[in-house]
Amino acid sequence: MWLPSSVYERLPQFWMLVGILLICGAVYIGFDFSLSGTYLAVGMLSVVWSGCVMVLRARRRKGSESATEQPG
To answer: Residue 57: CB partners within 8 Å, gap ≥ 6?
Structure first.
């Protein structure tokens, strides 16, 4: 399945937002609620995963830019 580049570029930011909202939701409802731990864990995974994707994309872009530059 191919995604338009505008959607593809924004997906890590979307998952970061979802993760932050899940973490805030877990804190808001309190830890007495049985699913708050699940909300917190999924939110943390989402934030970490989106951060990793952002870093990997930045490294790849940096590497491809330096490879295409001509010396001199």
So the answer is: 12
Cα dist from 41 to 7, 13, 27, 62, whole Å:
26, 18, 12, 32
Residue 70's pLDDT band, with cuts at 50, 70 and 90, is low
- Residue 46 inside a domain? The answer is yes
Domain range holding 26?
12-56
8 A C-beta contact, residue 23 and residue 37: no
| Stated pTM of the model | 0.80
Within-domain flag for 52: yes
